[in-house]
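stage 2 :: seqdesign
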């Protein structure tokens, strides 16, 4: 396969993976079960990706860097994320609100320690720097004088560069932190309603309409560039509007199968906005 073909196929494979993970989330409500099933899908996708790339010699360095810096980490980050979610939820103490809050906070502190350990590379990544890309993201091009991952020699050199795994780890860490923050906020919100002030912003349409809007924005990758689970977007929305959206999986299914069309609210929104703009134009 040519470079452009493999890059395009990789993007398509990732879109399919995101769709598969979304379907799992819609069909399962237990978070641990969602992550367990997701890991199987991610593993299949990564194995497919590896079969394409391990024997491939990229035609130019720029395409190889793009693959290992921008594409492969998207897959691996999801594997890291779901693996950690299983660990976090499996070992959460069943000892009351305060103990659980402390547990989640300690998990966030672990993330901070990881950033501190890799502060130099994290800064490089956050600045969108490129001057070391040929050492970081080309296979078999690592510099022994640089700070390298401790498990480098266990990696498959045909499918791994010195720093692509760190990119995946950074992406996953951000999503894990969002997950933990939302757990803390929801625990405060529902653990003791008096501890959290009421939201000043109230959603005054139906809950179904809000789910339809969120789901539409989610499908457009409007949140975190698409690198976030639907459940986390729902949790953030619930917290922001002080609202309980209930079984949103069932709501999405009902939206998708309703007889008068799945985008009733979005269509009304579009019609109202166009009407408003036309009124403004006619008033000039």
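stage 2 :: out
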């Amino acid at each position: 396969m040519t470079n452009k073909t493999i890059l395009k196929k990789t993007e398509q494979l990732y879109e399919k993976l995101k769709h598969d993970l979304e379907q799992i989330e819609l069909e399962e409500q237990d978070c641990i079960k969602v992550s367990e099933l997701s890991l199987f899908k991610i593993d299949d996708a990564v194995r497919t990706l590896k079969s394409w790339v391990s024997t491939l010699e990229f035609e130019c360095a720029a395409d190889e860097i793009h693959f290992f810096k921008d594409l492969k980490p998207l897959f691996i980050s999801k594997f890291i994320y779901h693996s950690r979610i299983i660990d976090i939820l499996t070992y959460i103490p069943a000892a009351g609100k305060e103990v659980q809050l402390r547990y989640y906070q300690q998990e966030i502190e672990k993330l901070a320690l990881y950033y501190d350990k890799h502060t130099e590379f994290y800064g490089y990544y956050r600045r969108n720097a490129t001057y070391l890309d040929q050492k970081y993201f080309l296979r078999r091009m690592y510099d022994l004088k640089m700070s390298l991952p401790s498990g480098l020699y266990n990696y498959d050199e045909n499918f791994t560069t010195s720093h692509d795994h760190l990119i995946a780890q950074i992406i996953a860490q951000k999503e894990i932190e969002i997950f933990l923050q939302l757990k803390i906020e929801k625990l405060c919100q529902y653990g003791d309603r008096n501890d959290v002030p009421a939201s000043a912003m109230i959603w005054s349409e139906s809950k179904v309409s809000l789910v339809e809007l969120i789901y539409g924005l989610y499908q457009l990758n409007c949140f975190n560039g698409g690198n976030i689970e639907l459940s986390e977007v729902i949790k953030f929305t619930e917290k922001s509007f002080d609202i309980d959206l209930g079984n949103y999986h069932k709501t999405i299914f009902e939206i998708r199968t309703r007889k008068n069309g799945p985008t009733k609210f979005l269509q009304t929104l579009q019609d109202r906005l166009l009407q408003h703009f036309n009124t403004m134009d006619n008033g000039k």
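stage 3 :: structure notes
- DSSP finds eleven helices and no strands in the chain.
- The radius of gyration is 22 Å.
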